[in-house]
Amino acid sequence: MKDKSVFNPDYQNSDISSKIVAGLSRISEAFKVLLWEKAKLLGLSPIQIQILIFIAYHKPNDSNVSYLAKEFNLTKPTISDAIKVLHQKGMITKNYSLTDSRSYSIELSDTGIKLVAETDDFAFPLKNGLKDIDEASLQQLFGTLSNLIYHLNQNGVLTVQRTCYGCKFYSKHQEKDYCNLLKTELLNTDIRLDCPEYEEKNRI
Fold first, then answer.
1. What is the DSSP letter of 2?
2. For the chain, first and last CA: distance in Å?
3. N or C: where does the chain have the smaller number of CB atoms within 10 Å of the terminal CB?
4. 68-107: pLDDT as tens digits
5. For the whole model, what pTM was predicted?
6. Going from the N-terminus, what domains does the chain have, and what CATH number goes with each?
7. Which residues pair with 184 in a beta bridge?
């Protein structure tokens, strides 16, 4: 019903879940504004910056058109166009497959590495906004966000996620989170949103 829309202030103000959704929307807008400002400063598009940052911090096997399309919920042609521009600007190199000449992974060039050093601070204002919040509140907020991200992935809203909850190494031991790869119990603050060792567990 229209009256129960999360965007209807009258309903929103009486429903905490709607307030949270509205708050996440505001934060999403702030993220986009900060990214756009950095993109304009460097003469790149937002997605080009995001691709460069992703390649800098993730496995080479994930730095290809197909995976990047899923990561950013964009079409392969859109990602290919962005990569083409980055290649023309000398910011990336392409490593073609020995078995398939159409397939390639992407690495940063020296120019790309320097650019990432200038770009990946764009989200610092968001991080700085959390500095006055006490540790217990931050831990509670993180726990809520990590569960929400996993829920959205399980419902097909987020195509890719690399959080502990969806990993084959994750399990519950006596109602406690546990990593079977690290052989250790996981505290709330140990749960990862983007784990390098993540391997998707089989869905039943």
1. G
2. 34
3. C
4. 999 999 999 999 999 999 999 999 999 887 777 677 889 9
5. 0.82
6. 32-124 (1.10.10.10), 134-190 (no CATH)
7. 179
pLDDT in tens, 127-179: 999 999 999 999 999 989 988 988 888 888 888 778 888 888 999 877 888 89
Characterize the bridge pairing of strands 176-179 and 170-173: antiparallel
Indicate the pLDDT class of residue 204, thresholds 50, 70 and 90.
Answer: low
How far is CA 158 from each of CA 70, 72, 73, 155, 176, rounded to the nearest angstrom? 9, 9, 8, 8, 26
- Report the largest interatomic distance among the alpha carbons of the chain, rounded to a whole angstrom: 60
Q: Are 113 and 106 in contact (CB under 8 A)?
A: no
Q: Where are the alpha helices (DSSP H) in 43-178?
A: 46-57, 65-71, 76-88, 110-119, 124-128, 135-154
Beta bridge partners of 171: 178
What type of residue is 118?
E
